[in-house]
Amino acid sequence: MATIKDVAKLAGVSKATVSRVLNGNERVSQIARDKVKQTMKELGYKPSALAQALATNRSRTIGMVVSDLSGPFFGPIMKSAEKVIRDAGFQLVVTNGHGQEDREREAIEFMTNRPVDALILTVFALPEEEIVELHRNGTPIVLLNRRIQGFEDNCIYLDNKQGGYLATKRMLELGHDRVAFLAGHFTHPDSLERLEGYQQALDEFGIPFRQDLVFDDDYNEDGGRRMCQKLLNLKRDFSAIFCGNDLIAIGARDVLNQHGKLQSTCMVGFDDVTFAQYLNPSLSSVFFPVEQMGERAGHMALAMAGHKTAAVTHVLQPRLIERESLMAAQPND
Amino acid sequence: MATIKDVAKLAGVSKATVSRVLNGNERVSQIARDKVKQTMKELGYKPSALAQALATNRSRTIGMVVSDLSGPFFGPIMKSAEKVIRDAGFQLVVTNGHGQEDREREAIEFMTNRPVDALILTVFALPEEEIVELHRNGTPIVLLNRRIQGFEDNCIYLDNKQGGYLATKRMLELGHDRVAFLAGHFTHPDSLERLEGYQQALDEFGIPFRQDLVFDDDYNEDGGRRMCQKLLNLKRDFSAIFCGNDLIAIGARDVLNQHGKLQSTCMVGFDDVTFAQYLNPSLSSVFFPVEQMGERAGHMALAMAGHKTAAVTHVLQPRLIERESLMAAQPND
DNA sequence: TTGTAAGCGTTATCAA
DNA sequence: TTGATAACGCTTACAA
């Protein structure tokens, strides 16, 4: 690999001059500039990002910690974030936090040792103080899907309450007055906010909230299966189900199907992951603007890393995607 | 951030000594070692991976280029690769090649400037020579889903022919003698290999190959829709369909469903992406061991980066996952 | 406009 | 067993 030294020598100038033409414009004579550019080409010279980082104390790298490197939710977020980050000439480095406190901490440490110019975090387990402190210690942070008091400027999250509201309201409009809610664990703030939306819709329609129609469990298929099973076992009367996310919906459908109730139950999921539309009947869902979130996160991180970018919104708005699962069933089946 | 200098000064030793205890064991007195470790803790000292990389010319970083940062196929590959890489104390850096030649080239350049100690590539568009040359020029390469003559030691790929064979054979066994094949583009070697397997199965059952039952198009839902539509328009007689991947299968199902033929058509997809099991009827598919591929790739890359690891296999074996889509239909419907 | 030289935080060579 | 000191490839005062 050719170094700056080689270029300088061959071009007959000093390293400083080469460095100058490298870093866009400074005061370099046209002759020198041309000569240097020319020799750079000849040698196939590429500056070492490493050496630059060490010298400038900026790595042009943005770190990202997600709870699951695979899966339909984080993929699109990563993808869109990577796009804006790479377009800015920065590099995105992603690592998996697995949603566990110690893994998350380790992942972050791993990144800060590199180091990164900014960090995009989706961590649920890590205590708030650590996050805020990290930021104060000089690693700029963008926090996704989590809101910390007094740290709102660094957070990007969905209006979960609105999501819960939209879903529930639509089902009520369709005449379903007994809407169950199979939520993710209520230890998770998102779940509670979605519950608030659910309640708000009920209030508006003058329908009393019934604790016995609400369950919480894991945010995945098994959680959905368990909750739906409970719902059926308890012989609760219901004609519609609002699910905390699409995976829960899938598990619940499984159980409903076994009981021959899949077609007759109105259902809305949450997130609108790609495969929701491919299910049969297709699953209605609260659309989570994941691409938008990734994009915003990228811009925000770049801004913090000193790269100028547009202003960002911190609260994203969901919207309801209506599909077969919403329309097929009749309230009084 | 505390540097090695700070530690040295406070501990009353030289930088060299600190560096020695840092890099595991060398000849350092117990007293010095303890003292240094102690002060490291006090100062919360973390070595700069950057400076280490510059000095050693090894970054402890593995790069990875995928064709799609989101999507059900690459997610699990990345996830499992990241696990083994991180467990070895290395960092995985992923970027998106978008399956386009120029983007792929750019992505690779981006990584080699960092630099990385090895590169895991899933690139379909980039010419073979460039890949091989890159390797020769000192960036060790692991190539996924692609086999280059004389470069096999660096490649990890699925036995696609076997996959095609298994799927087709099973359908033939079930009595379907008119099996259509909706493939990905035949410019893609994988598609051709799967076709070979398809033909082999036909041969074994003494069933003549019929060109008019074979189509190729994009490896996605739209491709599947188009091909299935053609198949129906041409009034070909068929009772089973083998699809080049699960996305094609989904598109085809869509069309079949519109024609009331979904339940009566035997179908097998390829890849066995997560949602295949959630479709209704659930989709049979040729299982692609993605986790295994990611793992192997990680190990291989680490080995090339000088980190000792176990030997790896280069050819992965598929297996058939039988679900409802295979059993529901009768050959003579 | 250009060059010299110090510095970024490490490792590594060579003496001591 | 230790410590100077020169690298690694680049940036950036400061001087010329």
Key terms for this structure?
homodimer, 333 residues, alpha/beta, Rossmann fold, 6-stranded parallel sheet, 6-stranded mixed sheet, 13 helices, 12 strands, 44% helix, DNA-binding
The arrangement of helices and strands of chain A along the chain is HHHHEHEHEHEEHEHEHEHEEHEEH
Q: What percent of residues of chain A are in strands?
A: 15-25%
Number of domains of chain A: 3
CATH superfamily of the largest domain in chain A: Response regulator
How do the strands line up in the largest sheet of chain A? Answer: 2-1-3-4-5-11
Number of strands of chain A: 12
Helical percent range of chain A?
A: 40-55%
Alpha-carbon Rg of chain A, integer: 26 Å
> pLDDT under 50 segments of chain A (min length 5)?
none
Report on the biggest sheet of chain A. 6 strands, parallel
Oligomer: homodimer
At the first level of CATH, the class of the largest domain in chain A is Alpha Beta
Shape designation of chain A: elongated
> Structural class, judged by helices and strands of chain A?
alpha/beta
Greatest interface (CB-CB under 8 A), with counts per chain: A-B, 41 and 41 residues
- For the record, the CATH architecture of the largest domain in chain A stands as 3-Layer(aba) Sandwich
Task: Examine the coordinates and then state which fold CATH places here, giving the name of the CATH topology of the largest domain in chain A.
Answer: Rossmann fold
The termini of chain A sit apart by 73 Å
Q: Mean of the pLDDT scores of chain A? A: 93
Number of helices of chain A: 13
Organism (chains A, B): Neiella holothuriorum
Protein name (chains A, B): LacI family transcriptional regulator
Domain HTH lacI-type (chains A, B): 2-56
Keywords (chains A, B): DNA-binding, Transcription, Transcription regulation
